[in-house]
Amino acid sequence: MAWTRTWVINDIPLTFTAIGPFMVGFELQDETVVQLLANRDPRILDALAQANRDMVDIKLAGDVSCESAFDWRYAIYEPGFDLDGFIANMRRIVERNPYANEEDKAAALDRLSCALAEKAERAARPFKRELIKSRRLEFGGKRAQLLLALIDRDGYVCQECGCSEGLEVDHIIPLSRGGGDDLNNLQLLCKPCNSRKQDKMPEMAGEQDVQPAD
After folding, report:
1. For 28, phi and psi rounded to 5 degrees?
2. Is 119 in contact with 87 (CB distance < 8 Å)?
3. Among 24, 78, 164, 182, who pairs with 17 as Cys (CB 3.0-4.6 Å)?
4. Could you count the other beta carbons within 10 Å of the beta carbon of residue 86?
């Protein structure tokens, strides 16, 4: 979803970066470019103006590979998406892009917040998996006792469809979302109903949404 376009105008190298339809802006890592900008040198101002005009022509011609409309909040789940690069670009807009207005910076800050949250979630996933594995083993040791208690409370029927075949113990609030093993958080579901529920919260159980892959 990301693309770049490079020009050399007035002997000045310019690289423009975009992620989908969101215009990140010109890279300001080249020291010569940074110094020219700091001095408001007419050469860099003319070069930027020319590059901007070129960008309009390029977009109108559709001559930008991989450019397409997308919801950036879901783009970060795409396989191979450069999350660190996305974060760096958003920080560049917020902190040191002199051409970004307040609206641009607010949008970039929103994207930065979401991307940082996703990065933290990715870092925590291995530890969460270990914790869930440990809790499942602990639950397995007392499953028979809990199953008897559930049968005594609700009868031997699925709490969703009422059938009495292939019943499984389900955590209403899943272990992966912090649910416990107390009876108030347990119910009997048949295998098809339990498979549809997966690890969704109760209010999400009826939705046919697609969960981002780990």
Report:
1. -120, 30
2. yes
3. 24
4. 24
Mean pLDDT of 50-70: 55
What phi, psi does 70 have (nearest 5°)? -160, 160
Q: Nearest-CA neighbor of 92 among 114, 75, 71, 109?
A: 109
Give the C-alpha separation, 115 to 123, whole Å.
12
Q: What is the pTM of this model?
A: 0.40
Contacts of 79 (CB under 8 A, 6+ apart): 213
Q: How far apart are CA 139 and CA 77, in angstroms?
A: 32
% of the chain with per-residue pLDDT over 70: 73
Residue 175: phi and psi, rounded to 5, are -55, -40
In degrees and rounded to multiples of 5, residue 99 shows phi and psi of -100, 0
Q: How far is CA 148 from the centre of its chain?
A: 41
Which tokens is 123 given? 């870092």
pLDDT in tens, 6-19: 778 888 777 776 65
Residue 211 CA, distance from chain mean position: 11
Alpha carbons 195 and 161: distance in angstroms, whole number: 13
